[in-house]
Amino acid sequence: MLPMIAEAERTGDARRVVESILDRGERLMGFGHRVYRAEDPRARVLRNTCEQLSAPRFEVAAELERAALSVLRERRPDRQIETNVEFWAAVVLDFAEVPTTMMPAMFTCARTAGWCAHVLEQKRTGRLVRPSAQYVGPAPRAPQDVEGWGSINPMVAAAG
């Protein structure tokens, strides 16, 4: 999102930035969500937070959001595409001076509590929260079977 916001800031034409992205057939990051068809309520909270904290990029981000929603409604009147949490989370993290390269890790950390809550709910109810999400990684294994286990702290390796 930040490169898109920076481009709108540089050019002063948020609408043109959005149209250019869509004309190239690229996905407009920060908009649309698989679950929320209306505005993501988390986006609203983060937008308000950015405004209250006078985040330096709040005004340009708000203008970009307005332009994006307008263009999306014009081009896809059959689909309700709204702002998602990642759009405003990027502005918050930028305000906090989190390096751009660390933002994906920060998004992941923010989701960890929700993922843990899903696991606890699944264990309690005995059914998957989102059946379409399936783990496809390696099968479970003992820590000592993981390559490099013996080369880490010897006390930890001995306990495994």
From TrEMBL:
A biological process from GO: tricarboxylic acid cycle
Keyword Nucleus attributed: no
Pfam families: Citrate_synt (PF00285)
EC number annotated for this UniProt entry: 2.3.3.16
Any one GO CC term of the record: cytosol
Pathway where this protein functions: Carbohydrate metabolism; tricarboxylic acid cycle
Superkingdom of the source species: Bacteria
UniProt entry tagged with the keyword Transferase: yes
Keywords assigned: Acyltransferase, Transferase
GO molecular function: citrate synthase activity
Family, per entry: Belongs to the citrate synthase family.
Protein known as: citrate synthase (unknown stereospecificity)
Organism the protein comes from: Saccharopolyspora erythraea (strain ATCC 11635 / DSM 40517 / JCM 4748 / NBRC 13426 / NCIMB 8594 / NRRL 2338)
Gene name of the record: citA4
